[in-house]
Amino acid sequence: MAVLLQLREAVKRYGDQVVLDNADVSLVDDVKVGFIGRNGAGKSTLLRVLLGEEELEQGEIIRHPSLRIGYLRQHDPFHAGESALDFLMRDSDQPEWRCGQVAGQFELKGEYLEGPVKALSGGWQTRVKLAALLLHDPNLLMLDEPTNFLDLRTQILLEHFLREFNKAALIVSHDRSFLKATCSQTLELSRGKLTMFSGKIGPFLEYREERREHDRRVNATVMAKQKQLQRFIEKNRANASTASQAKSKAKQLERLQTTEIQTDEPTVHMRAPRVDPRQGTVFRCNDLAIGYPDNRVAENITLELEHGQRAAIVGDNGQGKTTLLRTIVDSLEPLDGDMKWGYGVEVGTYAQHVYTSLDERHTVIDHLEYHSNQDTTRQELLAMAGALLFRDDQINKKVKVLSGGERARLCMAGLLLGNANVLVLDEPGNHLDVETVEALAEALLQYKGTVIFTSHDRHFMHRVATCVIEVRDGSVKNYFGDYDTYLESVEKEVDDGERERNAKVGNSKAGSSSKPTGKDYRQNVRDQRKAEKEVKNLEKKIARLDEEKRKLNEQMLTETKPDAAMKLHEQIQELEKELAGCEERWLELSDF
């Protein structure tokens, strides 16, 4: 296992902000790492440092002689008028057949491959860039928010590509489902420190919180012991007969130290508008046609939504999801048909790129005062600002100096402080980090109003959606199934397409056969049974280890002796390591 890239004792600052503080990390040749951290923590800066685009103030970067980095470009690398195939041949200097073969892995064919690449949507252009990456044969991929604005189908294709890519990858993403599907390890950047965890993002987040809670319990035990010793010392140090005991206790007190708890930036908590629950129809449309004078996007749309539903609008990019939302909120005139909101409905809207239209002369608090309910107190404004991580002097920052993520949070804060009983949200999770997206999902689950939204974040969609509306091939209709059912159907379509393509490749090879032999089938059955047996044994072991850990944690809460507490802490650490290994193996076998 070769180390492709190593960062040692790295120091990097931007003004007063310490981005890297003696940070260390190693990337090896066969591991895919999910890279997480709060907005503004410095993730993109670290990528630029590793790419050699920015310099460190201190420290060093050690690159393996065979290192070949593939970086997913965010800018437009295409020439006017060239096709995707032209671009791939120009960029990679590979022959046409090879470029076409790799492009096929991303379903690039026909007009998508041979038509003008600049005419493609952002998602299809991303597929072209990914094909270009693969043609350069990198052994380390660096992807910065690769799923932003990608539709579900393209995300699944990208996941399949990464799973089959048997080399290293460093992936920055706020999409928990995507990281879970593609990365076996997790790297976190927090307060200038890099922490590598040998497990997926879910277990890492659980481990991080358990570790902090454990440190809090140990600190509580240590502080209680410190107070006990301090009382004894103060009571006995002036007494000649007990002075030596007091002196001994003083030395013991000096040795007792609390653990510094490595907390992240303040936790995000959100609240949705406080509205009364309602019943009946909230929105209805009949024979609706949407689009533009020269482009009829969809027609014959008949929908009815009830108060309290959380409707997820799904479909590939370019099918018309945003056009539908714009029509619903009256920012785009329908071409035909009629639509109507229920009585007493007040709609609040969060649209793609809405944060770019903010009044840059306003401060954070100005914006919130302007957009909040008139009954909102200043204390409630400050509480919401703090929940969205605008604290102390930050509430007086001008909009013009805010980052994209900060502007998105500010727009969301203004919307949530209002009194809308219907929220229409177009990609609300873009530019929000993992913790903030999770807090938004939690707020919407508590909301008593109606939500109509679209998102490319599958974890968010799974948590929030109660019904699904599909936009596809010029039609819009209720999808009869939940979001997980829809996800399974898209995955099946992608799998079927890949099988068809692989069969064609197999049939084109002389003497090849795609049919498995009887021997192969029997071996597959044996492997399946063996895996199922191991899964059952692992589940029993995980349950036993969980129970042991729970009992040790209970002992930790009541333990007052520091030495005993440390022994318990060490036992818990060993259990956690064993648990992590069992859970990782269980996850591998669950996908068998």
From TrEMBL:
Gene3D superfamilies: P-loop containing nucleotide triphosphate hydrolases, Valyl-tRNA synthetase, C-terminal domain
Keyword ATP-binding belongs to the record: yes
UniProt keyword list: ATP-binding, Nucleotide-binding
Annotated ranges, domain ABC transporter: 5-223, 283-498
InterPro entries: AAA+_ATPase (IPR003593), ABC_tran_C (IPR032524), ABC_tran_Xtn (IPR032781), ABC_transporter-like_ATP-bd (IPR003439), ABC_transporter-like_CS (IPR017871), ABCF_ATPase (IPR051309), P-loop_NTPase (IPR027417), Val-tRNA_synth_C_sf (IPR037118)
Any Pfam family: ABC_tran_Xtn
Coiled coil (residue ranges): none
A GO molecular function held by the record: ATP binding
Name of the featured protein: Putative ABC transporter ATP-binding protein YheS
Naturally occurring in which organism (per UniProt): Novipirellula aureliae
Recorded name of the encoding gene: yheS
